Amino acid sequence: MNNRSDLIWATLGEGGLVLALAAIGWATKQPLIFASLGPTAYELVEQPRLPSARPYNVIVGHLIGLGSGLLAVYVLNAWSAPNVISTGIVSTSRMWATTASAALTTFTSLLLKARQPAALATTLLVSLGAMQTPRDAVAIVAGVLLIAAIGEPVRRFRLRQTQARPALT
Asked: What is the DSSP string of 57-91?
């Protein structure tokens, strides 16, 4: 944090992105806000210079996570295994689906130069069984596209704000 205005703008930016997605989800009765979009909002607002905050990385990274999770659940036949998040039970098929989806997400993200750390959270939501239905997949795609579309102007605003100041790490 470089100054007091960062406290205000980061808070409003991240809260605003989450509110926008939650409100659109509420209005459409769709789960458009989910855990992996929190770190994405953080990067868009607080780390706008990072490559992972750019629209390509946000969109492609999360889509890789979604696809990797669905593929691993399918290939390892984990569809009917208990949802780890709601039951606390890690079945063998979920364990391997989670491992495979994380590795595949990492490999494909690196290959396509679409690094997005929160994409690993998206793949875990799918492979752990929390979001694995076709409706969930549509909601993930819509949520990711929305955060990229709404977040890009916020990211550019924050870039302009931080342009004159060196980034603190």
From this structure: HHHHHHHHHHHHHHHHHHHTT-TTS--HHHH----
Nearest Cα to 65, choosing from 117, 111, 135, 139? 117
CA dist 147 and 21 (Å) reads 7
Residue 97's closest CA among 126, 121, 127?
127
CA distances (Å), origin 164, targets 2, 17, 47, 160, 167: 11, 24, 15, 8, 9
* pLDDT digits 0-9 by tens, 52-63: 999 999 999 999
Q: How far apart are CA 1 and CA 168, in angstroms?
A: 7
CA dihedral 133, 128, 44, 116 (to 10 degrees): -100
* Token pair 């606390």: residue: 88
- DSSP class of 51: G
How far apart CA 131 and CA 124 sit, in angstroms, is 9
pTM over 0.85: yes
